[in-house]
Design a protein that fits this description.
heterodimer; A: 179 residues; alpha+beta; 51% helix; globular; B: 131 residues; alpha/beta; 3 helices; DUF6272 (chain A)
């Protein structure tokens, strides 16, 4: 394995605190969150920023975990591997990046939420979050359906992309920038 | 007169991703730690059932709920909302107070408390900065 190539990728993405690619479980998420807490203590990141990073990290990784569980229960072929990364971007900003594989049906469920979020300012986002939390609409067994709104509330900017890999499948890449 | 069953304390130790929980039928409840369970609704189900029964029984003079949650995921946020909803309903005929306790450096925990205050006009939620 070419470790140098991996290091190059990591360097190009700024200073990486944590990166993981593979099958995601709850105990892994807890362990990685613990590692993030230590890292942010060592780097003396303020608590507001650190907590926002932890929550975004938890939301994205639990999203991927729940998604792969639901897909496994549904049967059929599915690649459950996800990628999650936390790092330092330009200036004082940090980012959390996730990537996993979805089909077009899932994309069509997520995309309207993300588009709505992109069109909202801070106040609008806060209002919408509380509205959705109250109504309980869009809620399902695993989560409350407000995960992306939670993330957006806690970050400066989100970026996302659905990259087609053929056969009705997409790489869903999501990046949240926190300051 | 029998008013429902005799309530027992419910105590759960903290884990890496769930808070320490102490529910005492004498009217003191406490949640402290982090909250991002694998399945939030399953994890809190015994808590919600306990509360359901508590409010159906004869209540002590007052109920105090101390919430000291460092950070929590969105499904915990929804769960706490539902829990406060239940408490607000009970607080109509009963003296109940929630203390939302946060570290002065933890701005997002304070903001979360402020959001709950706005959402529950009839429920007394005190924001308490840890000294």
């Amino acid at each position: 394995m070419d470790i140098k190539a991996i290091e190059k990728i990591l360097e190009a993405d700024g200073i990486v605190f944590l990166t993981y690619g593979g099958f995601i479980t709850q105990s892994l998420i807890a362990g990685m969150t613990d590692a993030l807490e230590r890292e942010s203590e060592k780097k003396d990141i303020n608590q507001r920023l650190a907590n926002n990073i932890f929550v975004i990290f938890i939301e994205l990784s639990q999203n991927m975990m729940n998604y792969s569980k639901s897909r496994e229960n549904a049967g059929g072929e599915f690649d459950p591997k996800g990628l999650i990364m936390v790092g330092k971007g330009e200036g004082d900003s940090y980012y959390v990046l996730s990537q996993n594989i979805l089909d077009s049906g899932d994309r069509d469920k997520i995309l309207p939420k993300l588009e709505e979020i992109q069109g909202l300012d801070n106040d609008g986002l806060k209002r919408r979050y509380r509205e959705l939390r109250k109504s309980g609409r869009d809620s399902h067994g695993k989560g409350a359906g407000i995960g992306f709104y939670e993330i957006a509330k806690r970050c400066d900017q989100i970026k996302y992309e659905f990259i087609s890999i053929g056969d009705d499948k997409f790489y869903f890449q999501f990046k949240a920038f926190v300051k | 007169m029998i008013r429902g069953v005799v309530m027992e304390k419910l105590q759960l130790e903290a884990t890496q991703y769930t808070p320490e929980i102490n529910l005492d039928p004498a009217g003191i409840m406490a949640f402290s730690g982090k909250s991002y369970p694998e399945n939030t609704f399953d994890f809190y189900q015994p808590v919600m059932e306990w509360l359901d029964q508590y409010f159906a029984n004869e209540l002590p003079k007052r109920t105090v709920v101390n919430m000291e949650i460092v950070y929590f995921n969105s499904s915990s946020s929804k769960l706490f909302f539902d829990m406060f909803d239940m408490m607000e309903e009970a607080s109509g005929e009963h003296s109940l107070e929630v203390n939302w306790i946060y570290d002065p450096e933890n701005e997002s925990a304070r903001e979360a408390g402020e959001d709950f205050i706005e959402d529950f006009e009839k429920l007394t939620i005190n924001l308490i900065e840890k000294g």
